[in-house]
Design a protein that fits this description.
123 residues, mainly alpha, de novo design (two linked rop proteins), elongated
Length: 123
């Protein structure tokens, strides 16, 4: 088991969650049960899957949860692009969030590769 709290990818994921919730507050109330709900679930899924993977007994399971986390990151990216397209007034906040999200995607992918290439190494 790895301590997920010490991982920068988990901490960055938590920051993304906070930024998504801030953006969600500015979305129209008509999107509360649509896009806002999907965005917040996708964002929460990123650090949640990193944490869950760290609690597993094998690197194989950790990689599987990192795969889910990165999938959620790409899902969130798509949703943010939809917000940017449909709510131009929120574009600046979306661009900021996308910058954090792209960094997270790169870091998760790098960690995944590191584990794949060096199984059973302490991280």
């Amino acid at each position: 088991m790895k301590d997920f709290r010490k991982l920068k990818i988990w901490s960055q994921g938590m920051d993304i969650v906070k930024l998504v919730y801030q953006l969600a507050k500015e979305m129209p109330s008509t999107e509360k049960f649509g896009l806002v709900s999907q965005m917040t679930r996708a964002a929460v899924s990123i650090p949640s899957n990193i944490a869950e993977g760290c609690g597993r007994d094998s690197d194989h399971e950790l990689r599987r949860h990192l795969d889910i986390a990165i999938g959620s990151a790409f899902e969130l990216e798509t949703q943010l692009l939809i917000v940017q397209e449909n709510f131009p007034a929120l574009s600046t906040k979306v661009v900021e969030l996308l910058t954090h999200l792209h960094q997270e995607q790169r870091m998760v992918n790098s960690y995944r590769t590191k584990i794949k290439n060096n199984p059973n190494q302490p991280y």
